[in-house]
Amino acid sequence: MESTLSDKSLKKHITLGILAHVDAGKTTLSESILYLTGSIRKLGRVDNKDAFLDTYSLERERGITIFSKQAELEMKDGKYTLLDTPGHVDFSAEMERTLQVLDYAVLVISGADGVQGHTQTLWPLLSRYKVPTFIFINKMDQNGTDQEALMAEIHQRLGDNCIDFSEESDKRNENLAMCDETVLESYLEKGTVTDEQIRKMISERKVFPCFFGSALKLTGVQELLDGIEKWTVNSQYPDNFGARVFKIARDAQGGRLTYMKITGGSLKVKALLKGQMHRTQEDESESGNTAAYGSNDASSDSWEEKVNQIRIYNGTKYETVDEAPAGTICAVTGLTKTRAGDGLGAEAEQILPLLEPVLTYRIELPEGSDLHKVLNQLRQLEEEEPELHIVWDDISGQILVQLMGEIQTEILQQLIRERFNLEVKFGAGRIVYKETIAAPVEGVGHFEPLRHYAEVHLLMEPLEPGSGLIFDTVCSENMLDRNWQRLILTHLEEKVHRGVLTGAPITDMRITLIAGRAHQKHTEGGDFRQATYRAVRQGLQKAESVLLEPYYRFRLELPRRLVGHAMTDIEKMSGKFELGENEGDTAVLTGMAPVSEMREYQKDVAAYTGGTGRLFCTMAGYFPCHNTEKVLEETFYDPERDLTNPTGSVFCAHGAGFVVPWYEVEEYMHLEGAGLDGEHSGTEDKDAVLAAEAQVPGSRSIAPSLADDKELEAIFVRTYGEIKRRKPQKERTFRGSDEINPGTAGSAAGMNSTLSDTAGKGSWRGEKRQKENRRQETVQESYLLVDGYNIIFAWEDLHELSEHSMDAARNKLMETLSNYQGYTSQRVILVFDAYKVEGFSGEVTRWHNIDVVFTKEAETADQYIEKTAHAIGRKYKVTVATSDGLEQVIIRSQGCLLMSARELREEIERIKVEIRREHLDKNQERGNYLLNYLPKEEAERMEAIRQGLIPSDDEDAADNRCR
């Protein structure tokens, strides 16, 4: 049946997800919602194996949800798409992918068990994807459930903005008002909270409505539905087409289905969709490491495919439509290149999941199996479950798969049997380790077989645990064109880079491109892929690598008398713990421990507590391994034998390429490196020094080119007056080698520094020129640009003053800089942000002897300082005072001097000391003596009398009397 969906006749089109800890009653709630809204006629049950959304035989057999399902329902105010998600922790990756497309979510909590471990995993995920959430406390029909106690636990574990909507309106409104300052002011004034205010707070995740009931007994479910109907609002979508892919599946006939949500415009049958097919680590290993270096497309392969069919699923059945408007959840046939997480159209960025598998299993195949065929079949499952990471290990000759736990291995085993008629077994699970580095290091990669050329220099720096990988560039475009820089950043992102300890993926690093070189004729896209990969590996070989392992964050509840037993166990597991507040006769231990030690501990807890203890574990992240030496001994990984991830580089001599091992690459490299002591050993580019000195914030960004010099100069002249230019000096010409040093080719800065260095070595003319340069530097007009608010918040006294009065803090800073200018005679420009002031055109005022600038709307102080420094930085001595790391990098590239907030404070204090010393010295030299105020002749006579050289008038009178 063909039809066209239209959202014009419906008030709402909401995508609603159901989430819960396993066995909290999530599927039962979904069944009740479908039954009460008339979507199904018969109420199924999980234990009867006839639930509407348990469509797979494996789900009915085990009574758990394994795959997310879609159901369509209608209520008075519009259409709702219900997505039922897995609740078991082993299938949490499937659940997380679904969060990307939800408008609202219902979090189900078991009234009998309270807030469980997986619930506390779901809560931050809902926050990460900004999903407004309703809470349904289920199983309230069971004995011992206490609504007041459950609300207290929810407040403690999830937050005080979880509000019981079954309370009387006055009490509920009072609690609602406490969740938002604006609403509180309105409530104090009017004594009520409006429905519109409640809807807004829920949509902004400031309030989480709580409902109580029993899904099995159909109590409280209608109240939940009424609340969803009343308190949800329809999403607003743009006119341009956009879609988010959240799932890949196959129908009963084996056809590939791409599940997506339309996030803008509409999707029609036969429409052409475009996207990028991203390369993966597995693609690299299978296609060969060196075969692709001649390819011009080094980052990803673009694809264009036609939509054959649009399906709207409702359980196992579906309806085909000609067009799907924004807000629709649909399955599309005809697409073969899509992957879960992809964005289409306006949804450009791929969303990477937060939850990752922590166990690796070896797949044992039956004898005589065709490895290539089996690997291709397993790739189909990997499309549906991207977290599987199916890998062919060349070294061990095995197929490896990453999974979340034991239950997932059993499910995967049955899926392979049903789908491919293949009996496989899984070896013992091993922990998924990762690697990072302990200190900054520079990695160099060079790729130069005959008629190919690329060289890459990367600065690799360790980051805080959980930071992941951040890629950036500070390489000058004078050295390497922007398109090559972007290509290198793409190569860094596209691959799972392996460490050198165990071959585990690297993480928690910032990798910054600091230098690179291409050949105008021979460089192709694939050359930079090879040079980039080799630079990463060479840097890792040089660095002090650190092995990381996954840790659980746990909460252990058990009888108080058994606390000592638990503490001893946790210490043996190399864990850390804290003793929380006792809850009656129950003690609570919280802390962290390695997954490798704690993953089987649930069984031990049940055994020694007689079933009364409860252990809740959530992933805490990756931290240094507690038994590194043991793991390395068991791994036997040799980075030199890993041919898919080479550590050396390829150079060319006498028309043939040759491989240079990683420890000799720096002797052959064509560009000078950036020493990590802050000294730059070459003259190629000053930006390389910046990368070694600065911590560069942000990720994968290339600064946009600044405006034209003449335009900025005109702005500066209008603001500060005419610029006095120095007379240009004649360039000296040196005759020598006809070949320009490759390290200075194409770099004006490099050529100038080379000339100035040569000019001062051993010649009278060189010494004379150095003296002239020094004399010009002394008379050169100097400017000090100050980022006002940056300094205010960096200086403790001004920061404290700003909390009481920002005007007072600004005036204090202006007064301080005015005194400083009066002594140093620098031109001081103090810049304050006013970019949030609507319609403000900017203002420049003269405050005593300094210039104070308030930027215009949409212009930050950073931007103003950058363009000003760019306009005058090459003509005058310019110093910029700021502690903003990114701004420092940009400013230094303009040839300006830098001064941090701390250094500015020290400089001002030093000037104060000098002023006081000079004042005291002058007073000490002059004194306040009578002789200083007498005429010269009289002063000389008085001094002679003081020294006894001539008698005074009194002495003469006395002598006359004696006579």
What does this structure look like?
- There is one protein chain.
- By secondary structure, the chain is an alpha/beta fold.
- 35% of the residues lie in helices and 25% in strands.
- The strands form nine sheets. A seven-stranded mixed beta sheet has the order 1-15-14-17-10-9-18, covered by helices on one side. A seven-stranded mixed beta sheet has the order 3-4-2-5-6-8-7, with helices on both faces. It has a six-stranded mixed beta sheet with strand order 37-38-36-35-39-40.
- Helix 24 (788-794) packs across helix 25 (796-804).
- It is globular.
- The chain starts with a strand and ends with a helix.
- The relative contact order is 0.06.
- The model is unreliable at 1-10, 280-300, 677-713 and 723-779 (pLDDT under 50).
List its salient traits.
seven-stranded mixed sheet; disordered N terminus; alpha/beta; about 950 residues; 31 helices
The portion of residues forming beta strands comes to: 15-25%
| Gyration radius from CA atoms, angstroms | 36 Å
Number of helices: 31
* Major β-sheet profile: 7 strands, mixed
End-to-end C-alpha gap: 148 Å
Q: Indicate the multimeric state.
A: single chain
Strand order of the largest sheet: 1-15-14-17-10-9-18
The average pLDDT value, as a whole number, equals 80
Number of extended strands = 40
Structural class: alpha/beta
Helicity range: 25-40%
> Based on CA inertia axes, which overall geometry fits?
globular
Q: What low-confidence regions span 5 or more consecutive residues with pLDDT below 50?
A: 1-10, 280-300, 677-713, 723-779
